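As described in the Methods, two query proteins were run sequentially through the folding procedure within a single session, without resetting any intermediate state between them. The first query and its resulting structure tokens are shown here.
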Amino acid sequence: MTTRLPDGEYESRLATVRDRLAETDADAAGWFGATSIGYLTGFHHIQTERPVLLVVTPETTGIVVPRLERERVAPNPRIDAVETYFDYPGGEPIATALNLLEELGVDRLAADAEGAPGTMGYEGPPLSEHVAVETQSWVDRMRWAKSAAEIDLIRESARWGNLAHRYLADELAVGAHPATVSQRASLRGSRAMLDALGEQYVPRTRGSGPAHAGFISGPQTRLPHGHTANRRLEYGDVIITGASADVDGYHSELERTMFLGDATDEHRHYFELMHEAQTIAIEALGPGVELASVDRAVWEYFEEQGVTDLAQHHVGHNIGMGGHEPPYIDRGNDVEMAPGHVYTIEPGIYTETAGYRHSDTVAVTEDGTERLTYFPRSLEDNIVDV
């Protein structure tokens, strides 16, 4: 059981970006993105209107943070220099960043952006107005393939997501409100996870538990990103679930199409089409397989069945620290799968009255694949007795 990323992973990542830096004429590399900063250093923060900038030179690592993050970042053993400003807009974060760059002797910066993102109303000037900046996406590309330790964390996420999903199925009942069902299942899953892991649990959430299970129901399921309806569950409802858990910042994805009490003949028909499409996609995965070919295989099946008009999205996406990460399983993507890639497999069908979608998290290995989520997929296993 792995619940924490080993320190050596961060050292390896920093070494990799320093190797990339050596191939450029830049003096340092920089990141404004919170996920990239957490990926490289283990310092995780909430991206707000207050910019944070990580700077990596060949010899040292420095960071600019707002005053309220100073105590959180100071103990980080991978960050050598910390500069702070009081707040935004009065604290002048870009001026503070320029001070750090001057101290580190940086005239040219290879950064993930020319300036901090416009999150929560931030409107500061780009760093490129004051120093030479060339953009790079090194970390985004590094995150495509996960290490064995990262896959262990995603596997652990799938384990607790599966339990939360079990609790969700237990809580489903005619007359129940979707919001409270989700809250109870998430609470039960989080409590079990915290009780089992104890001090091994790494807190990466704020104001919520580490495990989550929720769903959309009834007419909302016909929308791939439907909302939780203010409508109590009714007998025969179609339900599309979603469950996961945060394990040291890593996530899995488990989704199931379920039926409350029973499924009509129409429901069964479309469920089986969706189920077969997902099976086709899972069986097509593997090292060296072009992503586009997986999406095309599903589309060809949909064409054979005459339901292409009911498909609204591609087959899936990479997953890890982010819920959606590239590369994407899409007909326009000629990237090949490689060991360490972890994908959600979620082809869906959406009629005028209901939607049908399973999602499973699958890791690509040296000689095949490993399905990390394991809640039953069959129709009969997804009919909820009431």
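Immediately afterward, the second query was submitted; its sequence and tokens are:
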Amino acid sequence: MLKNMLRLKFIIPAVFGSTALFVFIFFGPPDVYTLTSSPAFCSSCHVMEYQYDAWLKTGLHRNIKCVECHLPNDNFPNHMAWKGIDGTKDVIFFYGRLFSEPMKISDHGKAVAQKNCVRCHGEMVSRITLGERTCWSCHRRVTHKAPLTGDLF
């Protein structure tokens, strides 16, 4: 009995401490979520400058943030989990110089982007038979092509 009480003395503070640390890391200091969701933050890595310029200059979807297309937006916990996973991966790939040039979107990234296209443009897409096609197979300017050269990034 005494042994169990001693364990609880350590377990309860550890649980509360871990929970507090998780909440702080998950929600971060004020405005971290907003800052890391901004297109300016996404373009702060030099490998994303072309994609940012293409997004800014083409005018298509210029009023929405990168995370609206490139992260799952079906529910907040899933969004936050993938924000952490993709953010960590991006940091490792960028600072480890493991990225390929030209940049290519992953298969998971393609699936997420496709779901987000359908989420935002569902009424229009409901009248189309997509089959295996992606939205950007027809709407090529959405894929961060250079506005003047047409190069795909």
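The helical segments are 2-27, 32-36, 39-42, 49-58, 66-70, 76-95, 107-120, 122-125. We note this only descriptively and draw no conclusion about the first query from it.
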